[in-house]
Each structure stands twice: as C-alpha cells, then as structure tokens.
Specification:
The chain is an alpha+beta fold. It contains 20 helices and 14 strands. The strands form four sheets. A five-stranded mixed sheet has the order 3-2-1-4-5. β7 and β8 form a beta hairpin. α2 crosses α6, α4 crosses α5 and α8 runs antiparallel to α11. The radius of gyration is 26 Å and the shape is globular. The structure holds a DNA duplex.
DNA sequence: AGTTTCATATGG
DNA sequence: CTCGCCATATGAAACT
C-alpha cells in the first residue's frame, strides 16, 4: 500500500491511496491536520508514503511527534534517474518533473516544490494549474516505468529505497540531535587552550604567538598568516613551498614545534571552540542539518556545524544521557571489501573473508608486509601512479588481475569521457569540460576509478542504516550519528545488547541485499561506551 | 565594503 | 615523493 501526500500551508494537506503499481485506489482526501492523518494511517497499516521531498515534509511531522516507517522520495529518485540517463544536474524538483511530463518548458530548481494550488500562478515557471498531489502521483507512475527500464531494476529499486530511507534518517537525526555535554566540551577547551578571553585569543594561543615571535628573533608576527610565516623563515635563509604541517615537520628550527602546536590549537579555537558551542549546542544536543545524497558519490553532506568533521579530541563531549549509552559501529576496511565484491575477484574475496583484509592480503601476496599491502590497495583504488607504492602496485596487479582490471576499466571509461555507475546504479556526473586533455583526462580517470568503489561503499552503508532503522523502530533507541562508514545509536542501557545485535544483523542484511551470496564479509567493529571518544 | 579564491585544517 | 579519492569550514588574501 502506498499513500501519496501533498503538504499544504498551515499543517493541512491532501492524501490519496495508491496501489503498488501507482494507480489511484481511491479519491483524494483533504485533511486539515496532515500530521494527525499520517499518524493514524501509519498506525493502521504502515503504508509506504509517497511525497515530493522528505527534507521538506518530514521535519514538520517530526516536530509534531509523528514518525513513519517507509517512504518514496520523488525528488531524490528523480535525481538518481536523471543521473542514470546522463542528465545529471538537470532540474529534479516536483515542478520540473511535472513540466517534463506535460511537455512544457522545464523550470529551474529554484522554485518551491510544494506550492498551494491557489498560488500556482505566482510561480510563473511552474505549469499553469499545477497540482502538487496530481504531479506527485503521476510522477511516481512515471518513475516506476523508468526504474523498470534500468539495466538492473532490482538493484536500482534497492537504491531508491535506501536513498529514501536515508532521507528519513537524516531528518530524524537532525531533529533528535547528538547528545553533547557543553560543560565537558568546555573542560576540553580549557585544558587545551587555557582561559578564554572576551576580546581575543585564549591564553595558550597568546603564549604560543609570543614564543613563536621570540623564536624568530622577537619580531611581532601573526602565526595564523601563512605569508608572514614564510617570510619569517625566508629571513633566516629557509625557503619553504608552504606552511603545511608535513612541510614544517621536515624543517629544523626552534619555531617548528611551536607552530605545529599553534596550528592545532588555532584550528580547535576557531572551528570548534566556544563560539561554535554557543551557536550549535542547545539543551544538551548538537543539531546539524544532514543532507542525504548531498555528495556525488551518495555520501551525506551537512549544512552548518561541520558535523562530519568533528575533531577527535572534541568527541570527549559526546556523552550519553544518564541511564543511556552509545552503541558505536564502524565498518572496517569497507572500500577494499567493496572492490572485492563488485569486481567478483575470487582471490581478493578470499582475503576479504578475513577480519583483517590487509593482513590476509599481505600473507597472500606481500610476504607478510601488511603496511605494503595496504599502501598498494589504497593506491589502486585512488589511482596512484608514482611514489613508493609502485612496486607494491605491480604485485597487486599480478596477484589480483580481476580486481585490478575492474578499477582500470573504470579509469579508462572516465578518461575517454564516459560515465560509470555504482553497483546499484548511481551514476557519476559528466565532466564539466568539453574535451579532456592530458592531466585533465587522468584526473577524470582517477575520479571515475574511485567513484565505482566509494559510491558502492556509500550504498552499503546506507543500506545498513536503513535496515538498522527498521530494526530499531518502536524502541526508544535512536540513531544519532552517521559518518560514511560509522553509526552511533543512543540507547537505554538495558537495551544496549539488543541494539548491538540489531547492528550486526543489519550489517549482514546489507551485505546480502547488495551482493547476494558473495563470500566477502563486511565486519563491524562494535563498542558500547558512554562516551564517543572511548569507542574502539 | 562585499565577494571570491587560496591555504590549511578536520573528517571518511 | 602526502602521494592518489570524496567532502566542509575557517581565516587570510586577493579580487570587484
């Protein structure tokens, strides 16, 4: 059962039940209180909800205490389908979708997707007489047809389901927030930066600025300015290409250790210091806006707060509520395992059955040198051509020709101007340049080479997330963080073991859904800890 | 003064 | 030989 929804102003809306093939099963129903209607229907028969955009509709439902099990996000799906057809970046919002169906000029994505019927005329770029519910129902039927016409409809349907479920999780995480102890964050800052100042940098930054100036002969300088630091070094006869940390590490000068410490602390102060805390942490929660499908590879992005770049030292402040704990799960060595699965390389899959893929790889082909095996693997996935990894790469190519050919082929396709797809069918965007020459083509090849792996890894993680969400439904446990290959569940202590079991089961489910009976394993590192910083 | 690019950090 | 992939965010520097 599917129920199409069009949200309207003032919390009202219209709904219509559809059959699995998208054809209407009953009349359109206008409701004054959409949240109440969704709540009742969800409790009654838990349909798949069909709407233009989860990001637009669902947050308001959440604020009214309503959660749903499943949905079909029309606009995210449209973006996937357009991309599949090599039309990446074309308008994918409801108005554009409708215009295409009617053979009218397609409006850009700037308009709002859920306009009131009576207001349609205000938006000149949306078809006259635009009815959001009608557009949604018709668009869905159209998408079902297009989904069926893809090379692997089953896989693409899974992608659509996972993308839609991801949008639900993203909205829920943004709503619930990550538990954050402002006082503990303050302790970390005080410990590392010293007392804050109302007007300038904290004590430790001031001291380091002083010490660095002394180390350069007492000239007053600003260590946060790369140009000044380069000049200061050059006055002492040391010419550097940049002030990057790894460059400085190779320089023998008394200012170097001070500068390295300054960089770290200055970064902490400006990006995750007291003003960040004041802006983003409220009532014990850090609330960011997560954007499902925000990255071309299908990874999530965030808007505001830098939720996917939280420095490890600051994770000390992520502490579970009293009587609660975190179950933290991290997929280890996800990308090489994905490569083994998608390439169908039996030999690499054999290594990927092991808990430590690199160790197994080393034993098989690198005389037990794990570091070398890891370097070769990363080099192959990223398209490294030079450096110390070259002999290791040759060994990898000789020993795992099937996996090697898989990434090489993706690279060649990119260099030749072609498009590549993930396992489930997410398609890379076309190159922006008309024709590629030399270094441009090689860069494009590295991008497509990595895309087939990174995008598939994102699909595996998204599938795990969706499966886990379903398993946690109806319990008080909450998904509170998701970072590419890592999830955090905030749970009452007495449910922690159940949650851990659910995470493991979701991981196994994700592997089966994507790759069937492939021998490749996708192990998860699990820890149950009251503080994120203590996770393994 | 406002906007864009560069340099550098963080995360995976 | 921090090199090869995907991002966000900050402040400095350079631009309009």
């Amino acid at each position: 059962m599917i129920v199409a929804v069009a949200a309207e102003e003032g919390g009202a809306g219209r709904v219509q039940p559809l059959g699995d093939d998208g054809t209407p099963l009953g009349p359109v129903e206008a409701v004054d209180d959409l949240a109440a209607a969704v709540r009742a229907r969800e409790a009654a028969d838990a349909p798949r909800w069909l709407w233009a955009s989860t990001a637009q509709v669902y947050p308001r439902l959440l604020r009214q205490g309503v959660r749903v099990g499943r949905c079909h996000d029309l606009e995210l799906t449209e973006a996937l389908l357009l991309g599949y057809d090599g039309r990446w970046g074309e308008p994918h919002r409801l108005g554009a979708l409708r215009a295409r169906r009617l053979g009218l000029p397609v409006p850009p994505d700037t308009g709002t997707a859920t306009v009131e019927p009576g207001q349609a005329a205000l938006f000149e770029d949306i078809p006259a007489g635009f009815d959001p519910l009608e557009a949604t129902v018709d668009g869905y039927a159209d998408q079902l047809t297009r989904l069926a016409a893809t090379d692997h409809p089953g896989r693409f349907r899974l992608l659509v389901a996972a993308e839609s479920a991801g949008a639900l999780v993203a909205a829920e995480m943004g709503h619930d927030g990550l538990p954050w102890r402002a006082d503990v964050h303050g302790e970390v800052l005080l410990d590392l930066l010293g007392e804050p100042s109302a007007v300038g940098p904290p004590r430790r930054i001031v001291e380091l600025t002083e010490a660095i100036s002394q180390a350069f002969g007492g000239v007053r300088l600003h260590p946060e300015s790369p140009a000044e630091i380069l000049r200061a070094f050059s006055r002492e006869g040391i010419v550097l290409p940049s002030t990057r940390a790894w460059v400085l590490k190779g320089v023998d000068h008394p200012a170097v250790p001070l500068l390295l410490e300054f960089k770290e602390l200055y970064r902490l102060w400006t990006a995750h210091g007291w003003s960040w805390r004041a802006q983003w942490v409220h009532d014990g929660r850090f609330k960011a806006e997560y954007i499902a499908g925000g990255v071309v590879s299908g990874r999530w992005a965030t808007r505001g707060g830098g939720a996917l770049q939280i420095p490890k030292v600051v994770r000390r402040a992520v502490i579970a509520d009293d009587g609660w704990t975190f179950v933290v799960a991290d997929a280890s060595q996800l990308e090489p395992r994905v490569l083994a699965a998608v390439a169908g390389d039996g030999r690499l899959a054999e290594a990927a059955r092991s808990g430590d893929l690199y160790e197994a790889l080393a034993a098989d082909a690198f005389a037990g040198d794990r570091a070398k095996a890891k370097l070769a693997m990363l080099g192959a996935m990223y398209g490294q051509t030079g450096g110390a990894a070259v002999p290791a790469l040759a060994a990898l190519q000789a020993r795992f020709p099937v996996a090697w050919e898989y990434v090489e082929r993706a690279a060649r396709t990119g260099e030749g101007g072609g498009l590549v797809r993930s396992w489930l069918g997410r398609t890379c965007p076309p190159s922006r340049a008309e024709s590629l020459s030399g270094e441009q083509a090689r860069a494009r090849g590295r991008f497509t080479r990595n895309f087939v792996i990174q995008a598939t890894a994102a699909e595996w993680a998204l599938t795990l997330l969706a499966a886990l969400r379903t398993r946690l439904a109806g319990t008080p446990a909450r998904l509170v963080f998701f970072q590419h290959d890592e999830v955090l569940v905030h749970t009452p202590l007495d449910l922690a073991e159940d949650v851990a079991a659910s995470v493991r089961a979701a991981g196994e489910q994700a592997g089966r859904l994507l790759f069937g009976d492939s021998p490749v394993r996708f192990p998860l590192e699990l820890s149950t800890v009251p503080c994120y910083a203590d996770a393994a």
